[in-house]
Design brief:
Layout lengths: L5 H35 L7 E11 L2 E11 L18 H11 L4 H12 L5 H8 L1 H11 L5 E15 L3 E13 L4 E8 L5 H13 L4 E7 L5 H8 L4 E4 L1 H8 L5 H15 L4 H15 L4 H14 L10 H4 L3 H14 L8 H19 L10 H15 L2 H6 L1
Parallel strand pairs: 3-6, 6-7
Antiparallel strand pairs: 1-2, 3-4, 4-5
Helix pairs in contact: 3-4, 6-7, 9-10, 10-11, 13-14
Family: Belongs to the transposase mutator family.
Keywords: DNA recombination, DNA-binding, Transposable element, Transposition
Function: Required for the transposition of the insertion element.
């Protein structure tokens, strides 16, 4: 029995597939021009005028001498590809996915050249990924839901090269709507994190339709609470308990850390707010002499650290911390880490947008545990009505 060499077998298979694909494409082209002549332009004095040949690169191989029919007036244009398109969109899509995966434009160009023999310069790769900028503009203007049970706010820093390299903030907003669906609502790149910056971010959300918000969850950045209440005065504020614990941790002696933090944990895992207050009183009595500043700091912030106790028990674990949005930030940092700095703000936006839309696709239509519970929904509905009025009436006004 004769064995066909593996490389020869691959060539035979590719030739067979491309031959079959060529036949099917030419059949589609003939039917397309036939429909054009008899249905789309039946009254025009026009006729067939043979065909011309061209090559067309597909994911299955290159089709040489593809026969494309034409008419005498030269008005027929196939919908299968653009006039000067020489390959399917698959390669451009692959380039965008490689870029999103962490490869630089130079690395992508080198890979494409080695795999397909296509001469793509880093500039060309960058131009291809620039098509994403149009999608970003549309995405950032898209309408939002009217109601959001929770909005998480957080910022991370990326190094951007303008005249010099400097760290600039990415404002990131995540929301859970009244159906319990979680998604990234927006991101905004540039400058240094500030309360004024957050005001502009929150105004943008409101202008895009997110007018009814029950709760904002974020860390203790000076001025952020004031900025949030300025745009959403009827919403509650939950300061991140995990951030507060992290800020306290370094100030406690090593010998006390385990016991101190175990006692503190009993405060924010209590069955309800009244029990939490009682547990804190015991915590204060035990530790205030040794750590007066740390205990006082917690006591002063208890109103916004205990907000989550006013919400249904099934969602408390999800709302006393910014962990959901921080996990997203972690993925962004992982993607951005290989790059010492990004050449411009558009490069940062492209990378972040591709990661964010992947995240939203992953969570599309998946209700967060606890938020889809009928009792939770009923409680939230009462809260929405008490603060903003019935949804139906609001839409009609």
């Amino acid at each position: 029995m004769t064995t066909i060499p593996e490389n020869l077998f691959a060539d035979l298979l590719e030739n067979t597939v491309t031959k079959l694909l060529k036949e099917k494409l030419e059949l589609l082209l003939r039917e397309e021009i036939k429909n054009y002549m008899t249905v789309e332009q039946p009254l025009e004095r026009n006729s067939l005028n043979g065909s011309y040949t061209r090559s067309f690169q597909t994911r299955y191989g290159t089709i040489n001498e593809l026969q494309v029919p034409r008419d005498r007036k030269g008005t027929f244009q196939t919908r299968l590809f653009r006039p000067y398109q020489r390959r399917e969109g698959w390669l451009e899509e692959a380039i965008i996915h490689m870029y999103k995966g962490g490869m630089s434009t130079r690395e992508v160009a080198k890979f494409i050249d080695s795999m397909f023999g296509s001469q793509y310069s880093p500039t060309t790769i960058s131009n291809i990924t620039n098509t994403v900028m149009e999608d970003i503009a549309d995405w950032q203007k898209r309408p939002l839901e009217q109601r959001y049970s929770v909005i998480y706010l957080d910022g991370l820093y990326v190094k951007l090269k303008r005249n010099t390299v400097s760290s600039e903030v990415v404002y990131l907003v995540m929301g859970i709507d009244e159906k319990g669906y979680r998604q990234i609502l927006g991101f905004y790149v540039g400058g240094h994190e500030s309360s004024n910056g957050w005001v502009e971010v929150l105004k943008n959300l409101q202008n895009r339709g997110a007018t009814d918000v029950l709760l904002g969850v974020f860390d203790g950045l000076p001025g952020l609470e004031e900025a949030f209440r300025k745009i959403y005065p009827k919403a509650d504020v939950q300061h991140c308990v995990v951030h507060k614990v992290r800020a306290t941790f370094p100030k406690v002696r090593v010998s006390d850390k385990t016991e101190f933090l175990d006692d503190l944990k009993q405060v924010y895992t209590a069955i309800d707010g009244d029990v939490a207050q009682a547990v804190f009183d015991g915590f204060k009595a035990k530790w205030s002499k040794r750590y007066p500043k740390e205990v006082n700091s917690w006591e002063e912030q208890l109103p916004t650290l205990f907000t989550f106790y006013q919400y249904p028990s099934m969602v408390r674990e999800a709302i006393y911390t910014t962990n959901p949005i921080e996990r997203m930030n972690k993925e962004l940092r992982k993607r951005l880490k290989p790059m010492n700095s990004l050449t411009n703000i558009e490069s940062a936006e492209k990378i972040i947008y591709l990661q964010v839309t992947d995240y939203n696709d992953k969570w599309f239509g998946r209700a967060i545990r606890g938020f889809a519970d009928p009792d939770t929904k009923a409680t939230f509905e009462k809260m929405y009505i008490a603060r903003y009025g019935p949804l139906k009436e609001k839409q009609e006004t």
